Amino acid sequence: MAEDKKSFLAYADWKTQFNLLSNEEAGILIKHILSYVNDENPTLPQDDRIIQIAFEPIKLQLKRDLKKYESAKQDKAVNGIIGNLKRWHLDLYEKYIKKEISLEEAVKIASTRKESPTDSSRSAPIANIADTVNDTVNVNDTVTVNDTDINNFLGADAEKKTVDNLCFRSSTPPKEEKEKSSAQKEKAFGKSDFKQALLDRDANEQHVDDWLKVRTAAKASFTQTSLNKLLNECDRNNYPVARAVQACAEYSWRGFEYQWILNKQKYAAGKQSNTTNQSRQERVEEVREFRSDNRQALADRLSQYITSNPE
């Protein structure tokens, strides 16, 4: 077993072999398996041929699993090294992909490059990586890494570290570094700066204060990025910033998109159209009722006239 491997696979079909043994023999076999995977070099008595026969297929399976583990571990180590080449030394990575240089040559070249002060304070020593990686590339582009060298590079805590920790520079993911950098840049931009920038664009102070309350209640941040988003949206659609801020305050919008204004206008136009149609229908009904009343009144007057003036 590998020194840093603390577990092994036991297969359900082993049950068939154990069923052929007595409880005492099964116990001996289990202890023998545990001693074997812990590299204690156990031996079975020569007269226990049944246990030996039962253990043989189990031993072969354990060896196959160990071989797969070692292969996967080495592949992971190589992929980590290649990934760091791609991240920090893209030119060397491209040459390696085109098979212009070997992985070993790329690592050695990378080790000779000067690091920036920031990188050197938080990265693994590149020179050590070049010394600890023992690899070759054949025509099938298969890379072999010496596992002992990798453990030497990782140090005494190799069991607790993974091969992913092999790096040429900072172990902080690029995305996190970018977010931290952005946060530091916007740290100096606060709520008062946010307000002043809107006032400078002729926004009404009361509207600004009302909108800031909306954003505070919504737990929205007051950053340069969020401000620029509103200003760019207004400039792109030739819409006054003052009216945008007023709309945000009135409708309790935490942000602003010009399409929202168009949607509001469309809704208002539709509502007005419905009101106009309704008013027109009401007038038609009124005229109809008026005509009906007039005809009735004319008929009544004609009837009275005929009654009062008989021939």
From TrEMBL:
Domain DUF6291: 7-86
InterPro entries: DUF6291 (IPR046258)
Ranges annotated as biased composition (Basic and acidic residues): 174-188, 280-291
Pfam families documented for this protein: DUF6291
Region (Disordered): 168-188, 269-291
Domain of life assignment: Bacteria
Name the record gives this protein: DUF6291 domain-containing protein
Organism expressing this protein natively: Sphingobacterium zhuxiongii
